[in-house]
Amino acid sequence: MKAKDFIEYTPIETQNLTAQERSKQYRAFLDQRRSLRFFSDRAVEKETIENIIMTASSAPSGAHKQPWTFCAISSADIKAKIREAAEKEEYASYNGRMSDEWLEDLKKFDTDWNKPFIDIAPWIIVLFKKAYDLDENGNKMKNYYVNESVGIAAGFFISAVHHAGLVTLTHTPSPMNFLQKLLERPENERPFLLLPVGYPADDAVVPVLKRKSVDEVITYY
């Protein structure tokens, strides 16, 4: 590898905190994050959404292919169409597609096929994965570890939303192919996640949940 292909790595500013102190602060900060289904219609600036998305786009990816597209939707008309199509799929899921065990596991969230947050949240972000890229002549170009790469970008996105003082929810109406058609995305893009973004409603609530303990999560060798 030629020297010009590399630049010197600059460590992050630590503000005189140790790695242990910084990790503890960040753990406590993210432990406050919750998935939310109750949104305010309060406006969120386009620049805020752009900063969040570009933070997500800094995620690592296979061979640095960055195989993702984030569609940021604020149009009330398009959001209404997304909600209509999503609820159609969700209704079918809650009334036949989902197993009894799955439905039982969802009871603690008090959720059903109605998805009003799609209309209410000021932004709907649809994250698409690029199964492959296309060159200027329309020839297919291989992408690597697409699901893993896009999944990591989604994690960065969710963390950035929380850091901005906003809330989001990972929504996966299944199947999601209607999003590709509705948003007129190219054939090489497949819907991965739908994420409403906004401020929490004044009367927002979240279920009482318990996160797994250290012993349940980590095995040291």
- Sheet-strand content, in percent, reads 5-15%
Which class of secondary structure composition applies to the elements?
alpha+beta
Instruction: Average the pLDDT over all residues and give the rounded result.
Output: 92
| Individual helix count | 8
Largest sheet: 4 strands, antiparallel
What order do the helices and strands follow? HHEHHHEEEHEHEH
Radius of gyration, Cα only, in angstroms? Answer: 20 Å
What is the CATH top level name?
A: Alpha Beta
Shape verdict: globular
Q: State the helicity in percent bands.
A: 25-40%
At the fold tier of CATH, the topology name is NADH Oxidase
Distance between the termini: 35 Å
- List low-pLDDT spans: none
In which order are the strands of the major sheet placed?
Answer: 1-2-6-5
Number of DSSP strands?
A: 6
Work out the count of structural domains: 1
CATH architecture: 3-Layer(aba) Sandwich
CATH homologous superfamily assignment:
NADH Oxidase
